Amino acid sequence: MALTPEPDADELVLRIVHDVRALHLELLRRAVGVRETAGSCFHACILLQQTLERFTRCKATVRGGGPQTNTGYFDGEAWRGHYWVELSTARGPCVVDVTADQFGAIPVVVLPLQASLGRYRPDEQLAVDDQVAEFLADMEEDRAARVAAPG
Known about the structure:
- The chain is of the alpha+beta class and 151 residues long.
- It has helices at residues 9-32, 41-55, 113-116, 125-148; strands spanning 59-65, 72-74, 79-80, 82-88, 94-97, 109-112, 120-121.
- The strands form 2 sheets. The protein has a 4-stranded antiparallel β-sheet with strand order 1-4-5-6. Strands 3-2-7 form a 3-stranded antiparallel β-sheet, with no helix packed on it.
- It is globular.
């Protein structure tokens, strides 16, 4: 799948996706002592989205949904609350999910958007964008407070 015109861009993006998954698992293990991704999809998506936008030419957007609106991740029985990243690529959009294993899927899913439609369905994007913006603002506020703190 050609994600950008540069040679080896596909490989770089896939390496970043797998590296972010590994980093996320390590952060979960060290910070909260767990090895499962259940309940951590939003944080993993922020990390993935920020990393891809910083180090590739892909446009990455956090998507999400929940069962109350029949959106999110469909596990074969019901819609589950979930977040994932959608990449805009040279060949079209694709879904990237680094926490799909919480639903019994493979740990890292990369699918063309059209192939993902039965499994992933986003809710209202403005609500997700607001959640992402609020989270990033909170992170910046926390960082600024640590920098300004004496000692």
